[in-house]
Backbone:
């Protein structure tokens, strides 16, 4: 029996990898719907190839072009945030949430509220709304499967294990392109250099987050919600080879690690096929040719964004919403040459200093608070 799949963010790195896996396993999967922000050409290509029932384009200015190119196909075109939420609530076996940033919060919330299992590649939804999303998932009987390589690694390490026996969960980080440089040396570095990740192929936003190590900080907050564990049980370390993706240490000092090639097809395929596995055509790890596996502590002077995010685990959700909102503003400014690399941290930290704590009891309050934090971040002059 085929598994029905919806892919949000189909034209991005994770979305494209998902469709690549489905292309190689057409007898096992069928696409219900796909979405894109503005990449019309790739959305059209995927629509012709996979013939989904629904497609969504977030950028309304490009809608006429999309309509023209798929007019001969039997597909329903949806648009904007409303179209994305509509697609997220349509019946499917699993929804792959591969939209970058806080933009993924609304459709992910809608999918869970509709009782749909989620393959989560969007960390910001839990960073900002984990206190609502995780209880809702439990209430609706929804399973959230992590696609991020590190969280998926922990998920795989814990298969058949008991969380009550866990002493520490460790996420690994490559260290990004500036692993051997000081904060002073990278303060004025150009976006072109920051985008050159040494081991992973990723989109612009996550590549910059990797360079600042904010990505790993956000992932520690995500892990707290995803696995229902406190700060005292979460750590992160630098592992430049990116072969070990996650480590779980148990109270008897036994350690289970997850290793895999540095390709997102590994965690994506594991989630899509769960509880089974797929044959994936990747170059396997040859342990006889690995000279060493390095691990070292993350220096929070060198990477202050990580330290800032990590200290917010277990704090009021307002802080993590502001952290994420300000970081999205800062990264966008940096990519447009309007902010120095070193001031990404400064802008985020100053935003957090200025926020007031509000109650966040529902879906709309999170969206409103995100807007509030963005306004503060945008008002800062650095």
Residues:
């Amino acid at each position: 029996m085929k598994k029905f799949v919806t892919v949000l963010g189909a034209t991005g790195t994770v979305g494209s990898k998902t469709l690549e896996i489905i292309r190689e396993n057409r007898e096992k999967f069928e696409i219900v719907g796909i979405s894109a922000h503005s990449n019309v050409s790739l959305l059209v290509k995927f629509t012709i190839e996979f013939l989904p029932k629904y497609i969504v384009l977030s950028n309304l200015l490009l809608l006429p072009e999309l309509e023209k190119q798929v007019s001969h196909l039997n597909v329903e075109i949806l648009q904007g945030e409303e179209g994305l939420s509509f697609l997220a609530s349509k019946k499917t076996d699993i929804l792959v949430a591969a939209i970058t940033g806080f933009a993924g919060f609304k459709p992910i919330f809608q999918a869970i509220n509709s009782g749909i299992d989620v393959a989560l590649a969007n960390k910001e939804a839990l960073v900002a709304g984990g206190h609502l999303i995780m209880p809702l998932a439990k209430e609706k009987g929804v399973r959230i499967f992590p696609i991020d390589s590190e969280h998926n690694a922990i998920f795989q390490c814990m298969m058949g294990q008991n969380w009550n026996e866990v002493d520490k969960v460790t996420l690994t980080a490559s260290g990004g392109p500036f692993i051997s440089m000081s904060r002073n040396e990278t303060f004025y570095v150009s976006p072109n250099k920051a985008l050159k990740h040494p081991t992973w192929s990723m989109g612009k936003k996550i590549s910059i987050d990797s360079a600042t190590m904010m990505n790993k900080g956000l992932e520690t907050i995500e892990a707290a919600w995803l696995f229902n564990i406190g700060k005292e049980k979460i750590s992160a370390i630098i592992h430049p080879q990116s072969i070990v993706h996650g480590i779980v240490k148990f109270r008897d000092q036994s350690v289970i690690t997850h290793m895999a090639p540095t390709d997102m097809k590994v965690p994506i395929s594991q989630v899509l096929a769960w509880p089974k596995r797929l044959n994936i055509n990747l170059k396997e790890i040859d342990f006889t040719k690995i000279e060493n596996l390095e691990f070292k502590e993350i220096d929070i002077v060198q990477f202050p964004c990580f330290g800032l995010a990590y200290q917010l685990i277990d704090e009021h959700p307002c802080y993590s919403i502001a952290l994420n909102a300000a970081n999205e503003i800062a990264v966008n400014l940096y990519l447009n040459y309007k902010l120095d690399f070193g001031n990404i941290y400064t802008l985020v930290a100053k935003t957090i200093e200025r926020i007031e704590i509000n109650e966040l009891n529902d879906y709309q309050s999170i969206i409103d608070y995100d807007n509030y934090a963005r306004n503060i971040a945008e008002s800062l002059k650095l």
